[in-house]
Amino acid sequence: MGTDTFAPDVNGAATFTRNLAAGLARRGHRVHVMAPAQKHQVGTFTETHEGVELTVHRIYSWRWLPHPWLRFMLPWRVKANAEKLVRAVKPDAIHFQSHIVVGRGLAPAARRHGIRLVGTNHTMPENILQHVEILPKPTLAWLARIQWGSARKWFSLADEVTAPTRRAADFFEKGTGLTGVHAISCGIDTSFYTPDFTPRTGNVVSFLGRLDEEKYVHELIEAAALLKDLDVQVEIIGDGEVRPKLEARARELGIADRVHFTGRVTDEVLRATLTASTVFAMPSRAELQSIATMEALASGLPVVAADAMALPHLVHSGENGYLYQPGDIEEFAGHLRSILTASPEELTRLKKGALRTVEAHDIQRTLDIFESLYRGRTVIDPVTDTEPESAAS
Q1: For residues 290 and 16, what is the distance between their CA atoms, to the nearest angstrom?
Q2: Are the C-beta atoms of 274 and 303 separated by less than 8 Å?
Q3: Cβ 275 vs Cβ 195: under 8 Å
Q4: Which end of the chain is more exposed for a tag (fewer CB within 10 A), N or C?
Q5: Are residues 154 and 197 in the same domain?
Q6: CB atoms near residue 276 (< 10 Å)
Q7: What's the per-residue H, E or C state across 206-254?
Q8: pLDDT tens digit sequence for 106-146
């Protein structure tokens, strides 16, 4: 399994790769992970993730300097190491999680050695290019087309291609021209998360994810500033290059003492923070699925999310939370207020709705499907992009 980002990184691709690898290992498979080295810790290590041991091959990497922790492997090192690892491990299947770097090495190696190859797309070129947004828009559009062309080149080598949701799969097919992309939920193990139905003693809003421009976390801070009368406490879990800007925005709005930046934390602290929260906020406009939102739902949290990309498939207004129009801070704050001031009965109803929604994303079903893909069996994509019960009725 190859990935451009892996634990301890906090993002959807890293979390999915970790959960998938650990789940397969727990089922008795021998799993090897090719990932960037952390702080020059290059080599092969036995690492424990989600309670199981994985063999992780850490490849020499460079840190992306504008970012506090993001690292990337060098393409020529990936190609050389991919060939060496494939020859040494002799895997029955190879699964790459990104075409940006790691896929360029593993995909050709799989083809050369006749090994079953699966690729999963977690990115949109437009998200990557926001790091160079100082360039003119026509140049950015041209670069996006180049990136989509690169994705087509490397994913076309795969026997099967997947994306986390049907909307993400359709988006990928439109961008690359490829067809037959499976929509397979990343899935989570809901048993790791603990809902709490006891009466709340405070108003805690949490967010989990990278602190990058595409997440629009500043909208959460601005919404929280409209809720000063509720003594709202905001827990922002994760790190990224816009953290200084977000901290400055909290100071400008006079709520720096209410917005807490935890940085990267252990899984235990992350899950405890979700359990102790009242509501989860996801203002991102570019989620191809949002594992973080699923983790919140599994913790029994109502969610207020932007009405964008795949989030409407997870968040159903009035059933497990609310959607707001991206950029409408007053609507965002209004939905947060509705949940924070809800009666115990209403809050319980929303929390139960959250738990019902996440049932469709059980990790065991995800593992079953990927095992079948690795073995070359025909699979039927599960229906996880559910509509709200009110709409279905």
Answers
A1: 10
A2: no
A3: yes
A4: C
A5: no
A6: 16
A7: EEECCCCHHHCHHHHHHHHHCCHHHCCEEEEEECCCCHHHHHHHHHHCC
A8: 999 999 999 999 999 988 765 554 544 555 666 666 677 78
